[in-house]
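Assess this one:
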Amino acid sequence: MPPNLQKLSFFLISANFARIGIHQGFGLSVTLPRTAGWAAATRLLYTGQSLNGAEAAEMALVDMTTTADNVVSASLALAAGIASSAPLAVRSIRHTMRGSLLQDVRTAISREIREQRMLFATSDFGEGVSAARERRRPEFSGR
């Protein structure tokens, strides 16, 4: 493992919605599968598994890593690299690469909100929130 990834062991990322009895939000229905792949996204959403920085990098959930003391300089270096490119070309590439992402995310968010509203009224959601607050394993009933 590269040294900069070893230092990211403090970093955790998780889509733990199912662990508290709710449907994912934030457009993750679209963005997570596009980034990590359908199988990995489904596994992460079903299980709420936490990933450290190295695991997130291996799944392409992050495209760069750095140490905590190098965040600002690494960010400025990336920005300078982008700024040295032709602005019209960057804008055009950005538009092409994102394609229908905005519309797809809007559609997904509408669906996610409907599902969340339904699940907010369930016993499982109440149990999931209580278990998370109490730092214990939830005991879901399917109701």
Summary: The first strand starts at residue 12 and ends at 14. The mean pLDDT is 90. Helices lie at 3-6, 28-36, 38-47, 53-58, 71-83, 87-98, 101-120, 123-134. Residues 3-134 form a domain with the 2-enoyl-CoA Hydratase; Chain A, domain 1 fold (CATH 3.90.226.10).
